[in-house]
């Protein structure tokens, strides 16, 4: 008997009142040992068997285990990516790229997509839509153990090259542990090289025009096994005139595919596209009930500013935000090109970059990467940068020109305040645009306040601009074209409540200011400017015999007699301005007369052709009614189609900016770039209805697509304002 123990004391109770294990009973001990031994033996046996299995079988079994869990997915409870039945390879890729927890759109989409459903997804800008479709793409191909031999498995269509490039980079990051091949098929790259590789590519990220090109012309391009189609920024794809292209592409894809369609904004055309391309889709509209349609961390304001003060406002803004990263949006390529040059010369003290649709592809990528890397810089851009681009740490978005509509506004401001970060946005409105734009923004749940700018506090760059223009005829020409291009873009805007070219105060804008300072002051100012040694870029081309070749676009020939030579030192700005004004008037009148003549001639030809057709039809039997195809209509058709308008510069066969300064600020660097003018909807791959008339326009006399009376009204208005 043990010391201190009462003989009749009850046995001590363990947890739950169980009796303590009796270690003295040999039979029970043996049974316990046997059980453990059997368990270990089975495990070891299993492991051995597993080891003997070929790798593909092990993988197949693990895939099957994942697939079995698809029906149990509970998106509401998913906190980490690992809460979804996702392959180890994808999970590792996500972790390595520092993505641990899914965002709302990812949480709500991934489950449906894994279950094989079609999804129509919408969420605010910067909310992580890219991963919401990249993860299902990777899983879809992994599930099927897709290899290079299987060819194309997934197709991701983006509206712009930059967005396609960005998605490609993201795919490379999160998909790096898989063995799929991926390719970027966008315009501006070597078509032959693409064609050679295309049949071995499993995931293609592309822009619509280029894709159609390959579908039509590359023999090795097979899409019959396609498993998944993704349409990213679908509304933008349609806005850019790619509806027919997308229709043609979708028609050629196998019906058994899965389709995911994403956009930050929903439009009627997206719904039409969804109807045609998706089967019983799941609608994932993450922020449908949100109070505002823009990120909560974004602060938004607008200012009302007269047209002729806008450049001063921009300069003053940049000067007071030198340590920030800013994107400035303009309405057309011409404006970006012209103001980029002007601001380079003004040297605001921060690097300025320019991104627009008519730069060479290499240049575009270079600018894109450059802006990503910089801590403080200003990017002048057209709407090619408005959608989807994920530049890190952008502090400000300034909209120099009013956006086409509230959706474009939302996408533009979405370049800042991305994924939980903060950001600020400033919209510059003309007095005539204020009411119409504000009511649109309110309707779209955009919280925006008006702020006042004291005009006296603005730095005027007026004098400097005048000095540049007086120094450089070419620059003056660009300014004119920028002006016309701006007016044209305003004239072509559909929403006339906001954009009314006839309410613009053009005279002030054309002259920048009516105020005439003292003559002496101007002279002094011009001398000061000269002292600062502004470099003037000129390009002179010689023939082999050493003769100077006429520049292209042709310089505006002098239409007024040359004044006698002025021997005063420096520039007589007043005199130069007056002469330029008179030249403009004369030149415009001559041009106008020529265009009207052309127009009449063209009209006569058209009428003749119509008469010929009519008589032909009369002789023919009446045919059957045209078959109606279920294609998507983007526009109502009542509206005027701006794509039928040529760019005024196409008439000049614009190849002006060979020797363009592409970046300026701290360091000045010269580089070659092709650039001609375009407004930005003119992404050069646009092969749909928008592009073709444009190409023809380059060789035809000016056809604005408007009626003769409308043409005359617009031109008379412009001339009237300038005389
Ligand atoms: N789960 C996540 N965890 C952390 N960061 C994320 C996550 N998902 C996305 N991000 C980051 O959020 C940013 C925005 O993502 P993304 O570009 O996919 O947004 P978006 O919704 O497509 O925006 P937009 O509508 O402007 O195209 C990116 O920088 C991305 O790296």
Automatic annotation (TrEMBL):
One Pfam family, short name: Helicase_C
InterPro entries for this protein: DEAD/DEAH_box_helicase_dom, Helicase_ATP-bd, Helicase_C-like, P-loop_NTPase, RNA-helicase_DEAD-box_CS, RNA_helicase_DEAD_Q_motif, SPB4-like_CTE
Source lineage: Eukaryota, Metazoa, Chordata, Craniata, Vertebrata
Acidic residues bias: start-end ranges: 622-641
Sequence ranges of Basic and acidic residues compositional bias: 564-579, 604-621
Gene: DDX10
Organism of derivation: Esox lucius (Northern pike)
Q motif, short sequence motif: residues: 79-107
Chain positions covered by the region annotation Disordered: 1-30, 558-579, 598-709
Protein name, UniProt field: ATP-dependent RNA helicase
SMART domains reported for this sequence: DEXDc, DUF4217, HELICc
């Amino acid at each position: 008997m043990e010391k201190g123990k009462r003989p009749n004391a009850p046995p001590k109770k363990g947890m739950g009142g169980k009796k303590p294990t009796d270690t003295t009973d040999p039979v029970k001990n043996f049974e316990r040992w046997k059980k453990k031994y059997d368990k270990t033996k089975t495990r070891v046996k299993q492991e051995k068997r597993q080891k003997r299995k070929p790798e593909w079988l092990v993988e197949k079994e693990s895939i099957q285990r994942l697939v079995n869990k698809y029906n149990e997915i509970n998106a509401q409870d998913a906190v980490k990516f690992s809460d979804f039945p996702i392959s180890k390879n994808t999970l590792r890729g996500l972790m390595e790229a520092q993505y641990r927890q899914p965002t709302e759109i990812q949480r709500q989409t991934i489950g449906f997509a894994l279950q094989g459903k079609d999804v129509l997804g919408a969420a605010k800008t910067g909310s992580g839509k890219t991963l919401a479709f990249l993860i299902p793409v990777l899983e879809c191909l992994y599930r099927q153990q897709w290899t290079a031999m299987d060819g194309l498995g997934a197709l991701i269509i983006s509206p712009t090259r930059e967005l396609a490039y960005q998605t490609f980079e993201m795919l490379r990051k999160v998909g790096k542990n898989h063995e799929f091949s991926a390719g970027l098929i966008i315009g501006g790259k070597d078509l032959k090289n693409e064609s050679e590789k295309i049949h071995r590519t499993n995931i293609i990220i592309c822009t619509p025009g280029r894709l159609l090109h390959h579908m039509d012309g590359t023999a090795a391009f097979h899409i019959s096994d396609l498993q998944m189609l993704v349409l990213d920024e679908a509304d933008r794809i349609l806005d850019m005139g790619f509806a027919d292209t997308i229709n043609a592409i979708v028609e050629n894809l196998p019906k058994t595919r899965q389709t995911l369609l994403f956009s930050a904004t929903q439009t009627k055309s997206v719904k039409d596209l969804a109807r045609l391309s998706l089967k019983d889709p799941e609608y994932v509209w993450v922020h449908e009930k949100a109070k505002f349609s823009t990120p909560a961390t974004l602060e938004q304001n607008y200012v009302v500013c007269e047209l002729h003060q806008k450049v001063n406002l921009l300069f003053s803004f940049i000067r007071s935000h030198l340590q920030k990263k800013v994107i400035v949006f303009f309405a057309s390529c011409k404006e970006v090109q012209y103001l980029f040059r002007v601001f380079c010369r003004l040297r605001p003290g921060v690097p300025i970059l320019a991104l627009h649709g008519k730069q060479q592809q290499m240049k575009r990528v270079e600018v894109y990467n450059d802006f990503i890397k910089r801590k403080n810089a200003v990017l002048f851009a057209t709407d090619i940068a408005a959608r989807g681009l994920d530049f890190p740490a952008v502090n400000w978005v300034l909209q120099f020109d009013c956006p086409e509509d509230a959706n474009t506004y939302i996408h533009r401001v979405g370049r800042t305040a991305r994924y939980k970060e903060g950001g600020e946005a400033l919209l510059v409105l003309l007095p005539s645009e204020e009411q119409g734009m504000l009511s649109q923004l309110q309707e779209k749940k955009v919280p925006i306040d008006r702020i006042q700018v004291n005009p006296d506090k603005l730095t005027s760059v007026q004098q400097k601009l005048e000095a540049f223009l007086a120094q450089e005829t070419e620059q003056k020409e660009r300014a004119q074209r920028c002006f016309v291009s701006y007016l044209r873009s305003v004239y072509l805007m559909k929403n006339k409540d906001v954009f009314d070219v006839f309410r613009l105060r053009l005279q002030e804008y054309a002259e920048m200011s009516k105020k005439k300072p003292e003559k002496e002051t101007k002279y002094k100012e011009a001398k000061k400017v000269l002292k600062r040694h502004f470099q003037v870029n000129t390009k002179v081309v010689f023939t082999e015999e050493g003769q100077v070749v006429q520049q292209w676009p042709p310089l505006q020939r002098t239409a007024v007699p040359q004044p006698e030579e002025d021997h005063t030192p420096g520039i007589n700005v007043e005199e130069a301005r007056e002469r330029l004004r008179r030249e403009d008037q004369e030149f415009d009148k001559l041009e106008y007369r020529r265009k009207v003549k052309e127009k009449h001639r063209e009209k006569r030809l058209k009428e003749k052709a119509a008469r010929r057709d009519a008589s032909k039809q009369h002789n023919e039997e009446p045919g059957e009614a045209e078959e109606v195809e279920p294609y998507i209509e983007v526009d109502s058709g009542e509206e005027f189609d701006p794509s039928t308008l040529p760019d005024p510069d196409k008439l000049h066969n614009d190849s002006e900016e060979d020797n363009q300064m592409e970046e300026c600020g701290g360091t000045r660097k010269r580089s070659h770039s092709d650039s001609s003018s375009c407004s930005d909807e003119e992404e050069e791959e646009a092969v749909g209805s928008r592009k073709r008339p444009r190409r023809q326009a380059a060789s035809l006399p000016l056809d604005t697509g408007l009626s003769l009376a409308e043409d005359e009204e617009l031109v008379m208005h412009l001339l009237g304002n300038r005389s």
